[in-house]
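Lay summary. Proteins are chains of building blocks that fold into shapes, and those shapes determine what they do. In this project we predict the shape from the chain. Here is one chain we studied, written as its sequence of building blocks.
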Amino acid sequence: MCGGTQIPVAARTKRVRSDREYPARPLVGVGALIHDGQGRVLLIKRKFEPNIGKWSLPGGLLETGERLIEAGRREVREELGVELDVEGLFHVSEELIRDDAERTRFHFVLVDFLASLAPPDAKVVLNEESESYEWFKAEEVAGLDTSQNTRVIVEKYVKEKLRR
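And here is the predicted shape, written in a compact code that computers can read:
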């Protein structure tokens, strides 16, 4: 781990935003793999379901009428208080989580951009959606408690961007 900010959390309870649980149709999530040019990636620790308490890429839901790239920038601005230099679309996937009765509890189509902070030394200021953030060496992420999607995207980053 490489520096970061901790925000104390009282009791870890299953906090869910009701509009996301048991959706009528898949929701579109937009996020960013933020890297620093030194092989490190910025992850946030989730405060809400799905994946509460896990390390994840910052991001959130696409709003009606919003372009994907603008949604990515907006979500990172809201969550981290920083602007992005977006390098391009990096990964598209889905997250499908079923409950014990095999009903679809969460279903997201996830669009993630590759980006860096603008300016590179921008100060991260978390909003209420995350417990903390950290810069991790990309190779360390495989050993963390992350969402499955985060693990896949960071592995792709390591293979395609760091081991060329």
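What the prediction tells us: The beta strands are 2-6, 27-35, 40-46, 55-56, 59-61, 83-98, 104-118, 130-137.
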